[in-house]
Amino acid sequence: MSFQKFATASVLVLFLLLSVNAQASDARLFIKLGNKLFANQQYELAIKEYLRVSPNNSEEYARAVYNIGVCYYELWRTDDAIEYYHRAVELKRGRYPAASFALGVALDEENRFAEARVAYKQALKASTGKHGPALFRLGLLFANEGKREEAAKLFRKALEQPGQHLASSHNNLGVMLAQMGQLNAAETEFVRALGEPGAELQEATHNLKLCRSLLATANHLSDMDELRVSMNWHGGN
Q1: pLDDT tens, 151-190?
Q2: Cα 85 to chain center, whole Å?
Q3: Residues 192-231: pLDDT tens digits?
Q4: Smallest Cα–Cα separation from 117: which of 138, 93, 132, 96?
């Protein structure tokens, strides 16, 4: 190759590198701007910023698609959110735990439980089984189906992972144990639920009181229906 051709080729390579770096920088800027708008609950404007991210930037583009899904979810446009969560997972070839989990939650809320279960399991696979919230939500699905032993196993696994789901996982494990007749173990879990930092679970307070009442009065099993499962990790009524 002549020196002139070599120099021309070098300039072209440099130009391409600079173009790619510029696109990546722009993509990060658009995501940053979108995130600021999202934090201010300006979801429609945030979507416009995320849409500016080029598909040529695969990593940033997948993030932008996922973020658009989150915006639609906050706008109560759940079907659109599901579509974008699906796209984000596909763009990352299934290796996007946050998107898979968000997809599961959205499907769950649409009563598409079989699909939600698949999404939660995908989140677990993508995180090598270390996704506490996905384990928690899978536990809820099994609990709602009356599969107490399977649910209890999932809540126990959820407790092995850090996060805000711990208090609710203790509470729900306690409910499963109580329903299986293991009241002493259930009492321990309700106490642990209330002992978690920042825990204000009315369910756990109610369940602990009921559990101790059952232990003191020869296990009135008819009262088991009064036990309360925590549906999320924010307490609730």
Answers
A1: 999 999 999 999 999 999 999 999 999 999 999 999 999 9
A2: 12
A3: 999 998 777 899 999 999 999 988 886 555 566 678 877 7
A4: 138
Residue 97, pLDDT > 50, answer yes
DSSP the chain: --HHHHHHHHHHHHHHHHHHHHHHHHHHHHHHHHHHHHHTT-HHHHHHHHTTS-TTSHHHHHHHHHHHHHHHHHTT-HHHHHHHHHHHHHHTTT--HHHHHHHHHHHHHTT-HHHHHHHHHHHHHHTTT--HHHHHHHHHHHHHTT-HHHHHHHHHHHTTS-STTHHHHHHHHHHHHHHTT-HHHHHHHHHHHHHSTT---HHHHHHHHHHHHHHHTT--GGGGGG----SSSS---
Q: Write the Ramachandran bin of 220: left for phi over 0, alpha for psi from -120 to 50, otherwise beta.
A: beta
Apex CA 61: angle with CA 59 and CA 65, to 5°?
A: 125
pTM: 0.83
